[in-house]
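The protein record quoted in full:

***
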Amino acid sequence: MGADSEDDPATFHNEGRHAPAGASPLAPLPDHRNTSTAWWQELWRRHAHITTPLRQRGLECDIEFGLSAYLVHVSLPDDSHLIISPPQEPPSNRPPGDPEGWTVTRQHRDQALFELIYDSIPSTDPNAPERPEVRNGGSASYVIEAIDQQLSQLGLLPTPPSPTGLPLVPTAPQPRVPEPLDHADVAQTAGPPLNPASDVDRSTAYVYGDALLALTDRLNGTESYAEAAALLGQILEPTHGLLERLGELLEAAGEKAKEAEEDDGFDLSYDLADAAAEIRNLGETLHVAEDRMRALAPPQPHRPTAPRAHAPYLPLPALPTLQRHTR
């Protein structure tokens, strides 16, 4: 994925350091000489779907070079660390931050510790049994969930994730998204089938659309960039955000269409899978938008400028008198 044309090289340095009051803190950013370079900032941007959820959990992250590709280094409270790595031997042909799979290990520099937490990289050994994680591919959501589970068991997660996967903003409650309804609930609450040509009861027909509309109204009404960033994160957060969940919904709908075992069902499943991929690509493109929103500062109050002082007008010099010559 290419760099966003609107990205400012200063975005990394502003991220999380000038957050308005009330913003939920993230773990500190890396602090070394490479962070001021454009190439490193681009690598950080490409890995934000991994680093941002972990920083929201209080874990410090950095980008380092491994054997043949860049990886994410995560510091843990017990002085051990996580290595979140794409394929190294042989290296991946895919761009940084978007590999075909991830490996997560927990290691310690001074102890004989090497613990495999997650591995979705396809094995190069044709005789090796396939690991269940391989079907997850390069999805970041499964990586974060595996890390959450393991570090929670070890008591090494500084900030447990909120139910939405985001730090909560203390200034206002988060919007409530209705729970999914099962078939029995729909039969009891929705009443008779709706006629598309007639008026519909929006209170029962479009509960999820109305929840998103309420989120939009809150964002329009807020005066805090911190709250606006948190509301935007409800959509863009890479593991629990609306775009990720929408992609999962479309994929599930595609699998359901296949069950018909008809040509049109298979065609529909392919269309839905393509739509899910486009939604995830959109999330990848906008994954730093929340941090950029949080780093914005409110406009300074306008101060009227004093009128410019003019130099005093000086009298014009007297014109010389003309002398008439007579013959």
About this structure: The two ends are 96 Å apart (CA to CA). Strands lie at 61-65, 70-75, 81-85, 103-108, 113-119. The longest strand covers residues 113-119. Confidence is low (pLDDT under 50) at residues 1-10, 16-23, 164-203.
